[in-house]
């Protein structure tokens, strides 16, 4: 995922998430990349009911964190609901999925 626009010093930028371009990774998995700061990739991911991230998401040299806006995300054997914040440090991996459908807001950061 690449950041479409960088927010510069002394600048503010507002976007409507649903107006951002959609990258359909596979059926049921949509990513919207949001403007961000250098070293941080910010995004919103929508998973349709029954969808799973296409492959193991390996974090070599960067971390990731996300907040579940609505729906439920399953990481391993644990189900997390709306309002949950999940953080992964560098050298971790995961493969999120959802039985209910979900929207998450998150970011990757350089380690």
From TrEMBL:
Q: Which Gene3D superfamilies match?
A: Jelly Rolls
Q: Which Pfam families match?
A: Cupin_7
Output the superkingdom of the source species: Bacteria
ChrR-like cupin domain residues: 11-102
Its recorded name reads Anti-sigma factor
**Organism, as annotated:** Nocardia vermiculata
């Amino acid at each position: 995922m690449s950041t479409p626009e960088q927010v510069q010093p002394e600048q503010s930028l507002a976007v409507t998430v649903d107006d951002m371009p959609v990258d359909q990774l596979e059926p049921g998995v949509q990513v919207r990349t949001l403007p961000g700061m250098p070293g941080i990739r910010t995004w919103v991911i929508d998973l349709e009911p029954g969808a799973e991230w296409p492959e193991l998401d390996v974090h070599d040299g960067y971390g990731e964190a996300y907040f579940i806006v609505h729906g439920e995300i399953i990481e391993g054997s644990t189900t997390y609901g709306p309002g949950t914040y999940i953080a992964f440090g560098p050298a971790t991996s995961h493969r999120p999925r959802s039985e209910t459908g979900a929207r998450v807001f998150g970011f990757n950061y350089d380690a």
